[in-house]
Amino acid sequence: MRKIYLLVASAFIGATSFGQTNLSYEEAVTHPAAPVVPEVGVTAGWQAGIYTQSTDASHGDFSIELTTVNNPAFASQGLNPTQPGQIFQSVTGSFDNNGANITGSVDFKADLLAGDTALIIFEIYDTLAAGISDDVLLYSGSLFVTQSVTTWTTQALSMQQIPGATGTANEFYFGGLSGFNQLTVGSTLQLDNWVIEGLLGVEKIEVKNSFVAFPNPATDVLNITAAEAIESVSVLSLDGKVVSVTKGGKVDVSNLTTGVYIYEATTVNGAKAINKFVKK
Asked: Are 79 and 72 in contact (CB under 8 A)?
């Protein structure tokens, strides 16, 4: 299975160790890319994705709801306008134990339309160095949800080694998608109360940043937000030449000629995101 990343946002998570952790969705969800792409949500502890908060929860006050949506604005990112609801997170580091020892569970509900399949992701990769396209899946406990589940159900998750896969386990990757392959607008997957055990060599999950750039395409202003304040944004042409440098996350692009550019955003604590945007 190939790794799936949301292209309208980028995120970095640092991790240093825990034997067991419970991950819920009690923190507020914001939608910094509204009104252009209001589907994009950001909440503490998770990467930016396509999700909303729901008061229908198995534990605590809130769960997360992933809904397959259609928005023409996604096409500006080179994506199909129809996108599944999605939430991801990863823990990176040198794991000092066998990946098969990592177990967990998650509570879920699903309302799947027209034969959709949702996906609960529970995987370990060797991320190598050349980019996400060559990451090697070493272990997987991912679950395909093939029919609607109308009551909260606790799903046990355990890793199985992928036959023939070799490499160094350095990324634990988990989350969910409201649709996989076939996408029908309105299909939903709700998640709550992750429990993860056995991930030695990792002390805690600490979100360093979740970047969102909007609107994209941009006409006059490109706004870039993150979990912490933006220190500066450099805009580059596709050949790598610096076009402008702006303090803060509000970038004036009104004088740029129409085309594709690269932004490099840096937060006050030094985290970076590099991505493309379109100037209309």
From this structure: no
